[in-house]
Fold each of these.
Amino acid sequence: MANNYYDPADLRKFGKITEWSEELGTKFFDYYGKVFEEGALTAREKALIALAVAHTEQCPYCIDAYTKDNLQRGVTKKQMMEAIHVGAAIKSGATLVHGTMMMNKVNKLEM
Amino acid sequence: MSVTKSKKSLHKRHDDLAQANKQLEILSGGIFADGELPTFAKKIKETNQFPLRPKKLEILQINVGYMCNQVCEHCHVDAGPDRKEIMTWETMEQCLEVIKNTGAHTLDLTGGAPEMNPHFRRFVEEASKAGIKDFIVRSNLTIIRANKKYYDLPDFFKKHNVHVVSSMPHWTRGKTDKQRGEGVFDLSIKALQELNERGYGMPDSDLRLDLVYNPNGAYLPSDQAGMEKDFKKALMEDFGIQFHNLFAITNLPIARFLDYLIASENYEDYMYQLVDAYNPAAVANVMCTNTISISWDGWLYDCDFNQMLDLKVNSKVKHISDYNEDLLNDRDIIISQHCYGCTAGAGSSCQGTVA
């Protein structure tokens, strides 16, 4: 076991998860591949969504992979940062909107 | 990772990586020597494609010199204003003899900036008389605006029905200038507009204008058709520029790009990317199977990359002075790990994807 929980080299081993559960692993990668194919959304739009979600999930492997993927697709730094702000806005908005629960509770409890 | 840029070639700096044997050592050592990654030979053996053999010769690519007005970060030629290797008229005459008799349908002039060879125009005039179907000049665009003596190049190209293929790494100023130097984007745009004015790149025009895209760092090019769509939309909307096709080319780990990969600590990861993206279908059509590359001093190579690594053809015929197409076509192509660059994903060649 390495001294760090995260190792960039582990990203290359992602495909090996299939080895310990072939059926589920294969089904996952088939699904994954299908999701990122060109569809009603372009592959580039999907790559930008993936980058934003990678950040809200704070997954280092996903950030590594989808930053590279976006560069490959010609996406600019400005576009990538805007996508991350969308993720950040939803993440902070999701926190704040729960404030209405707090307000409801306070209003119910207080005379 | 940010890497210190130099305006001098590796040769001028007497850098170790200016030597072909040092580059080949790196490409055969490390992760390939210890078996972490398979060598290219081992990989193509898996699909019975070893040894790699030529098919019909289609393209004669002539490198008329390594001198260039630019010092691009990724340049596999290590070209620049300080390179003095220039093809002489004597060697050009030998090339003209070959061009008259070749079975190849495409003549492809490259450099450096080929226009900087003092005999360039005379050579184009003579070569265009040979009746070659497709006569390509790889122009870096900025040369057209670099000096008054080059201002008439668009008219010269048009007069000789030259097919212009030009590098354009991105449709934004920032990305283009970062790779190719400050001010390159604006000069390239101006040059493209001038070519458009002569009819180059227009939808129904026979004056072919194609652009070459290569990634701006340690990653591979994406879908060529998608990139072409993006380039066309952006260049039309922003500058009213039109062109025919976009060729997406993978950066090969040679010379300055290899230097960049090592200095930025991206080398191993990049080689993994190339090997992971290996596509056996691309092997069948790699450009060394239909191309002969001729250097400024007349030596013959399987491709421009092998030329830069000084890997001469494995044939009795090694020099333009002894040129014999039948003998040349009966050879094994020389390979090393840089070849993974031409077989990654949809493949890569001077004409774009191959698979």
Amino acid sequence: MENANNKIEKWDLIIKPQSSWLSVDLVSIWKYRDLLMLLVKRDFVSVYKQTLLGPFWFIIQPVITTVIFTVIFGNLASISTDGIPPTLFYISGITLWAYFADCLTKTSNTFIANAAVFGKVYFPRLIVPLSVLISNLWKLGIQLVLFIAIWVYYLNISKAVSPNWTLLWLFPFLIIIMAGLGLGFGILISSLTTKYRDLTFLVGFGVQLLMYASPIVYPISALSPKMKFWLMLNPISSIIETFKYVFLGSGYFSGGALIYSFIFMLIILSTSVLIFNRVEKTFMDSV
Amino acid sequence: MGNTVIKVEGLGKQYRLGQVGSATFGADLKKFARRLQGKKEQPLDLGEENDRTKKGNSDIVWALKDINFSVTQGDVLGIIGRNGAGKSTLLKILSRTTSPTFGTYKVKGRIASLLEVGTGFHPDLTGRENVFLNGAILGMTKKEIALKFDEIVAFSGVERYIDTPVKRYSSGMYVRLAFAVAAHLEPEILIVDEVLAVGDAEFQKKCMGKMKAVSGEGRTVLFVSHQLGTIKSLCTKGLLLHNGTIQYSGSANEAVNYYLRSFTSMGSAPTNVTFTPKDNKRAQILDVKIYDVNQEQKLNFDVFEKIFIEIYYVLNEDISGLGVGLNIDRGGEILACSSDTDENPERLALRKKGVYKTIVQLPHPLKSGTYTISSIGIGITNVGGIDSHDNIFNFFVEENSFDPTFKSYSANRPGIMFASLKWETSFLEEV
């Protein structure tokens, strides 16, 4: 699909069986921006319909997870938290991690979950996973409010918490890299699941494993140099560590590691978008 | 002539039969290895014609093959064909929900497809929210929807429930609202599947009116339907598909007629059945025909055509009390059982040895559908049959020459047979 000048006539749309790999139609995504926002609104409204607590559920989840982590990893296993109060340490990791995990799992079934709609009408398919990223931002926002409340509390009572205020501007970039990674992995899986359904079983389990391979419940400083090297290959590690470095003053900050994560994100995202774009044209024949 | 807005060249679509999509990882690896060695991919051209009644040798079929046509602005193109002819596949490619395997497809202008109504409706959202969401999915901007919102709601007739979640709607209200959104799309090219067959009669008429209005505005419409009458009344051009190829392309009327003729020429569907005479029978049916008022033998009839059955039979001796009769079935249910002595008891008198001819006109008009002359027989009334044959003809009655909406012989109306009832309505007084 490309806008092209035919020799004699001008066509708005030309469809051929094999268009080039690089024919991602960003223009039409922009044209459908209203649909993007309406899908976000749909997710937002439909989640709270017929619930008593509404958005409050978004708070309960990280609170309980933090309590469990504090008991198991803090008290029972006595894993170091770099001198940071355990509650604050765990919730800072959980908040950012949850955004990544949600983006990944909810975009990973894009094709299968939307087969009914995709089979009936054409619109740029990328709109759907993009709307998931934006919908999840709202949830992230609510959880960040919780995090900030706890953070401010400990900022006042604990001397161990000493934010690196000058690096606060990095925060939006951390979110962007997280979103990009979540989207990249998510749509890659969704493209592959149209053919190999096995991957759907792997997603939930894989995300859980990946959490333990990221410095969420332990600080990277607690690891041996060799382990640290392997862990930093995980693009999420530097994001979590930078977040902790900026807000808590603990953790490991390296510009190089952050750039690595960023480039990793760009590569996985562009590869996934290309694959996604290719799959979207014929997936109706195999779903 | 206007300019060409759609051009389809050499379009083809192949499907692999069997376990589509569940290809093994191993098979993919082999394919990849072949490609690495610089060998060509398995030739796709091995595919066979898409005739589902025959068992093929190849596991690749052409759902569509070598489709070429173009549509000029303002055309209303009706796409017809039997089930499995490739209508849906063509529609899917034209509406971009799947890609062709071969060929190109070019479009000028904004295109919107309506393969079903209410795509993307979310049960928890209110009518209002769904109008916006569905409109956006169909390609409208929020601003466009907002401008037409009142019009959409008025058309749907569900004003009162517009802020209620659609899961509380009756199915009729749901469909009305969904169609209302679709009806207010304003693309230059509209692709419509048989979505008109929804809702009650009143709403159907509204939909038909809207379709006519849309085509009257000079917009291009591609329309797929089984209702040949609708195609004739709505479309200017017709495209007849058969087993994945274009069998006829021309005016809508011609395409429909061609389609009907092709039905008749189908193999195992004779319009004349003869039986070899045997001497040992007292009486025997020799020959049966089915034809219209001009004695043209055929199996496809319009609702308004009169249908005749002609029966030749022979009596090998003088017989009294003899009658000849037949049963008409629709969908396995006997609609009528009639004999030539029913209204004329004097025929029960002795009939001489010899050959006889009987012509019977079937009930008229028959509602559209597939009918069977399930039995023809001769026998002695109240005693027993002498000779009979089952399932002689299958014939079709279709609504071609008129728009069946609001007519009691419309297939959509309940009731087994058409009955012409006399109504008297008079104005009494002003109030």
